Structures are given as C-alpha cells and as structure tokens.
TrEMBL record:
The lineage of its organism: Bacteria, Bacillati, Actinomycetota, Actinomycetes, Micrococcales. Transmembrane segments: none annotated. Belongs to the AHA1 family. This is Uncharacterized protein YndB with AHSA1/START domain. SUPFAM superfamilies: Bet v1-like. InterPro entries: ASHA1/2-like_C (IPR013538), START-like_dom_sf (IPR023393). Residues 23-159, 190-321 form the Activator of Hsp90 ATPase homologue 1/2-like C-terminal domain. It comes from the Bacteria.
Length: 329
C-alpha cells in the first residue's frame, strides 16, 4: 500500500498525507493533473469522483462530485493558487452544494500537493491547512484521514499500464475492512461489450455460469434503479450440488461505467450485500472492479469460503472465450 503516513497537528492546524509510489515523478504529476485519471482514485472505494470542470491554470477552478453506492452526492471545488510542474500545486479546497456554491457549515482549506523523486520512484505529500483547530477537528471527524488513505491506496492501479498491472493475474480479492471486499479482474475486451455482457440476458447466459457443470435456469435482468433482478443456477448431469439463486434490486446505474445493486439468496430475507460494479477501459482491455459491502465480518467470511472467487474466475475466463473473443475473429 502506498500511504506511509497520515498525521494531524492541532497547533499548526494541518493534516498531512504522505505516500510513496513505484513510478516516476512525471507519471505521478499526470495522475493528479488529468481529471480522467483523478476520477479513478480521488474518493475512497464506493465514492468515485466525477469532474465536471477542470481549468488547470492559476485562478482556474475544478468542480467535482463523489457518488455513494446509494446515489448520494458530495461536491467539492478546487481553486488553483499555484502550479509548479512537476513539483506540485496549491488549491483552495471547499465543499460545495448541487449548484457548486460553498456549503454552509463546512470549512474550506488551503491544500498543497508536493511531488519529489525518490530512489524507488516518487513521493507525494498532501498537506491541508485549516483556519482553526475546530475546522481541522470537524474534517477529521468526518473520516477524512481514513478516506484519504483508502483513496491514495487506489493509485497503484492508475500509475501502471493497465495490462502490466492486471493482465494474467486472474481474479483478485482484497479485504478492505471487516465488511468491504474489492474484487478485480482484467478482461480482454472493450467496456461497451463488457457492459452488455452484464446487462443482456442472451450474453449473460453464455458466461455467468461459474464452474463447468452448471447451467443458468433463470435470468431476469434489471437495468434501471428500482428494477428487480433474479438469477438461478442448477447442476447438470453428474455434477454435485443443489440449485440456488440470487435476487435483489438495482440502486444506481451510470452506464457503461457503474452499476450498484443489492443481492441476497432467493427466498430469504438476507443477509443482503451491496454490489458496486465499476468498469474502466484502457488500450482495448477492461478492468472489472466489484466492491461488495457485507452486513458483518461473519457473513463476509462465510460467503468467501464458498469458493465464490474461484467460480467468478471461471466465469470471467468464459466471458473472454465465449463473448469477447468471437468479436475479434
């Protein structure tokens, strides 16, 4: 994980985040000054950013909002005060409302980003300067320190070429905390087609089957918030196992980038998970990221112990083989 230190200083009214990366300073600079790159990490998992404006000039402004899995939005703005490529820049950072006006009751802060080369790559130091100890305390109480850590720890995937970062590494499972799991898989195909494979019954039936020896017996696709989805599987022939299925409701859709839905075993009241699917394309391949929120650690461990990740890997391999490969022939 790249974050090496997060500290607060009530006397100086500052919060400082330091992180080291195995990438040159020029690459780090680009990640922080290109809004398409910022959108991949500026915000903790489950709260990705969308930059609606980015005027990277002294006196210019950037506007963005972060969206939760439930569709809640938290807006922010940067006013650029200094720019010193590639060593750093300085902004006034503020919370804003839906009309991009400063949000009453929330502090603004002067924020500096400093970049320097190291023997292993580069280092970022981000320091937020507050007008009062109370403003610092308010932002820390909102979870800014842990949110910054989780956001910066997503940068490795951004700084590397996507193929170098994920190709050939299969389905990877990361335990973020007791209730959140991040699953990633690079698939060899464009995002538009991967999105369709998740949202069209004909395509889903070709690949979302788990291990060999199972068939999809029911597939009710939901593509808009409020719609219900339902999927069932059963063993075929001599395959051991009992039929099962999942159902739930779509919460948020931002096609072809993101879809959030609830999920539980059919015929039960839970436990229910919140599944946050994100797709990012680069150089003809798509990184699939699934952030799952469990109700508790026990449910998380129970579901992971079923071999879920292994079944997902077989499905993703089938997606490449049965759905994506034929489009390239």
């Amino acid at each position: 994980m790249p974050v090496t230190d997060i500290s607060t200083n009530a006397e100086d009214r500052t919060m400082t985040v330091a992180a080291d990366f195995a990438a040159p300073i020029e690459r780090l600079w680009h990640a922080f000054t290109d809004p398409t790159q910022l959108e991949r990490f500026w915000g903790p998992p489950g709260w990705p950013s969308t930059f609606s404006e980015f005027d990277f000039t002294v006196g210019g402004k950037a506007l963005y909002y972060m969206t939760s899995p439930q569709g809640e939005r938290s807006g922010g703005s940067w006013e650029f005060l200094k720019i010193d490529e590639p060593r750093g820049f300085e902004v006034i950072d503020a919370f804003v409302d839906a009309e991009d006006n400063p949000l009453d009751g929330f502090p603004s802060m002067r924020m500096t980003f400093s970049f320097e080369s190291t023997s292993d790559g580069s280092r970022m130091v981000n320091t937020s300067h507050f007008d009062s100890p109370e403003a610092l305390e308010q932002v820390v109480a909102m979870g800014a320190a842990e949110g910054s850590r989780m956001a910066m720890n997503q940068l490795d995937a951004v700084l590397q070429d996507l193929r170098d970062y994920a190709q050939g590494k299969g389905t990877r499972v990361e335990l973020l905390d007791d209730t959140h799991v991040r699953i990633t898989r690079l698939v060899d195909g464009p995002r538009e087609l991967v999105w369709r494979a998740y949202n069209e019954e004909e395509l889903m039936r070709q690949w979302m089957l788990g291990p060999d020896g199972w068939e999809m017996t029911e597939c009710v696709v939901a593509t808009a918030p409020g719609e219900k989805h339902r999927t069932s599987w059963a063993p075929v022939g001599d395959t051991e196992g009992e039929a099962f299925g999942f159902e739930g409701e779509v919460v948020l859709v931002d096609a072809p980038r993101r879809a959030v839905s609830t999920e539980r075993m059919q015929g039960t009241e839970g436990p229910e998970t919140l599944n946050d699917l994100n797709l990012y394309e680069e150089d003809g391949v798509t990184l699939v990221t699934l952030l799952i929120e469990y109700p508790d650690k026990e449910t998380r461990d129970m579901i992971l112990a079923t071999g879920m990740a292994e079944g997902m890997e077989e499905s993703y391999a089938r997606l490449e083989r049965e759905v994506l490969s034929p489009t390239r022939s």
